Amino acid sequence: TQQAAKLLADCRKVHPKEPLAKIPNPFNPTTTEAGYEIAAATTKLLKLPVGGYKCAATNDTAMKNLKISEPFFGRVFERDIYVEQKSVTYISPKKFLTPKAEPELSFRIGKDIEPGTHTRASILPMIQSVIPSIEIIDSRFSKVVGVYQAIADNANSGALVLSSKEQPVPSAEKLADMEVRLIVDREVMGEGLGSNVLGNPIDSLVWLANALARYNITLRRGQVVCTGCITPGPAPFAAGDIVRAEFSHFGSVQFFYKDQERGY
């Protein structure tokens, strides 16, 4: 575990330079548990504050393709969370290797969610707000790797872009019926409903709270959870693109994938 964690931690420090081809044998994880152990050890080595968590593979198609029976999670580091700016939100292409965008609904945690057995009824009062967001998935690997190595890489977490408009939690029906579009450079790249995420984004958060409980992890007040891709899959984007996600009832969020020019 430690050797694999050191490889991934060193890789994150210089990312996107020097990506790994894969975690070499005999250090490569061959189970979900081993993947999570490496992800936790990597986080410890990096000493970076955790700003929240991401849920991945939250629809049946993704689980079927990856031959897994439940979603998986990763940490999102505080330094990788961006809040939409009033004018233009710039995200630098220098920070990513193979970025792809996923429109997701995020929840801000209002009260610590301690390890335990959680249900929708126990989780709802713990949520402070809902936030339209775009997750940028990225990898420390130069080519596609198996699911256990992706878990070890904190579920391919890259960055999370949050709308500046956080809103009160609506009814579960409104979350399931929410229509979402992802637009890259004025072209619609995908559409979907909130119900694509484990039937309801709130159930994705319930799943996460129960999954974290197995590792004795508390979801802390103020942390953010992105609940999974609402469109059929992630969309790649390139330098110069404007990436936008629109959520019925909840507004939109967008960023400009470009370095901010210094004004004189």
Characterise this structure.
The protein has 264 residues and is an alpha+beta fold. Helix content is 24%, strand content 29%. Strands 1, 2, 3, 5, 6, 7, 10 and 11 form an 8-stranded mixed β-sheet that branches. A 5-stranded mixed β-sheet has the order 4-13-12-8-9, with no helix packed on it. Helix 1 (2-14) packs across helix 2 (32-46). It is globular, with a radius of gyration of 17 Å. The termini are far apart. The mean pLDDT is 96.
Any key phrases for this structure?
5-stranded mixed beta sheet; 8-stranded mixed beta sheet; alpha+beta; single chain; 29% strand; 7 helices
DSSP strand content: 25-35%
H/I helix tally: 7
Instruction: Report the order of strands and helices.
Output: HHEHEEEEHEHEHEEHEEEE
Rounded to the nearest angstrom, the distance between the terminal CA atoms is 49 Å
Structural class: alpha+beta
Biggest sheet, open or closed, and with what strands and sense? Answer: 8 strands, mixed
Tell the overall outline.
globular
Topology:
Layout (H helix, E strand, L loop, with lengths): L1 H13 L17 H15 L3 E7 L3 H7 L5 E6 L3 E3 L6 E2 L8 E10 L10 H4 L3 E11 L9 H6 L4 E6 L9 H6 L1 E6 L2 E7 L7 H13 L10 E3 L8 E2 L5 E6 L3 E7 L7
Parallel strand pairs: 1-10, 3-7, 4-13
Antiparallel strand pairs: 1-2, 5-6, 5-10, 5-11, 6-7, 8-9, 8-12, 12-13
